[in-house]
Each structure stands twice: as C-alpha cells, then as structure tokens.
C-alpha cells in the first residue's frame, strides 16, 4: 500500500520524572489517548509515545518518555535523559514528600540530564481538593526559586494536561528559535 510520510517542523523528546505514583503514566495516557486508569499497576509497555501538536503555526512532534517504575529505586540512568529537551517534574499535591523530593530530582537531573533541558514543575491530582497538602503558592514559590515554570494538573479530570505540554513546548521552542 501507500505510505504517507509524516512531516513536522520539530521533534522534541520530553521525559517524565518524579516519585512513584504521582501520576506520570496517567498524565501521559491522558495526553496521548485521553484515557485515565484508576489502577496504578497499568503498564504502558513501550518506552515512549508520540503526539504532534501545532504551536505558533509549526508542527511539533513530541516524543514523551515514561519510566517503567525505575524511579522507585532511583535508578533512572543517563540513557533515559539522553537527547531530551524537556522534562515534566511531577509531584502529587496530596503527598508532601513527593513535593519535597523535587529538590532531589532537580539535583539528579543536574548530574544526568542535558544541561539546557527545560523543566516544568507539575503539581498533579488537583481533583483531590479535600486531600491537598501542598498549596498552589508553595508550588509556585519553589518553581520561582529554581527558575522553572509551574502548572497544576489533574490526569483524572484532564484539567490542564494539554496546557502543561503546550507550556513546555512553547518554552523549548522559544529557547531554540
Ligand atoms: P506514576 O507511578 O507516577 O506513573 O503514577 P500513575 O500514573 O501510575 O498513578 C498512580 C495512581 O494515582 C493511580 O492509582 C492513578 O489512578 C492515580 N492518579 C494519577 N493521576 C491522578 C489524578 O490526577 N487524580 C487522581 N485522583 N488520581 C490520580
Ligand atoms: Mg508510571
């Protein structure tokens, strides 16, 4: 049969990082397939997924890498970060420790990720209002101190998931233009 050659203006690799169970895989499945899984054991089974978006009239193919659970053992290697131009650093607004560990994740990235990688801090699970322990202000202040952008999302109800990717892609594109 005929093979359509896919064309795009940019190809960006984005990695998902952050503690276990903060919602990384669900942010990805919401963004790629508009799906959410209550069961955390669901494994996507591939190392990355793609979606192409248009930003400022340019088509940007985004290749998003998800962990297969290595974050549990802090065993994310340089291979995971290789060639990445962006990282979504995700924490869970209902678990303080996952927010506090963002400092460690940034240090780990300083050692293993490309030095000019663009980081977006993502406070996930905003649908769990009654369980929130990390305020929006705390998230914003931490991001400001580390000179990174910040957004809150819910993979469950889908709020701000597309915006998170649009935000980081816009930042990356500005940096290289
Ligand atoms: P990962 O380990 O960071 O990839 O986290 P998962 O995507 O596997 O999610 C861990 C658990 O949190 C699962 O039970 C998900 O259903 C749940 N979860 C993920 N995102 C959200 C969210 O935005 N809201 C709520 N209420 N639960 C979420
Ligand atoms: Mg996962």
UniProtKB/TrEMBL annotation:
Keyword DNA repair (UniProt): no
GO CC annotation, single: endomembrane system
Keyword Cytoplasm: no
Keywords: GTP-binding, Lipoprotein, Membrane, Nucleotide-binding, Prenylation
Location relative to the cell: Endomembrane system
Major location (coarse): membrane
Domain of life: Eukaryota
GO molecular function term, any single one: GTPase activity
Membrane topology note: Lipid-anchor
Family: Belongs to the small GTPase superfamily. Rab family.
Name the UniProt record assigns to this protein: Ran GTPase
């Amino acid at each position: 049969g005929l093979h359509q050659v896919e064309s795009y203006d940019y190809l960006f690799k984005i990695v998902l990082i952050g503690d276990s169970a903060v919602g990384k895989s669900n942010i990805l499945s919401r963004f790629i397939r508009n799906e959410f899984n209550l069961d955390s054991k669901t494994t996507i089974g591939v190392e990355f997924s793609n979606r192409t978006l248009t930003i400022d009239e340019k088509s940007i193919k985004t290749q998003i890498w998800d962990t297969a659970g290595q974050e549990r053992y802090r065993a994310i290697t340089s291979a995971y970060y290789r060639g990445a131009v962006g990282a979504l650093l995700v924490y869970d607004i209902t678990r303080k420790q996952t927010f506090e560990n963002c400092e460690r994740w940034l240090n780990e990235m300083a050692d293993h990720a490309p030095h000019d990688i663009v980081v977006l801090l993502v406070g996930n699970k905003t649908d769990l209002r009654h369980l929130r322990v990390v305020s929006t202000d705390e998230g914003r202040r931490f991001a400001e101190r580390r000179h990174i952008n910040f957004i809150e999302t819910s993979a469950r109800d889908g709020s701000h998931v597309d915006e998170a990717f649009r935000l980081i892609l816009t930042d990356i594109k500005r940096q290289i233009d």
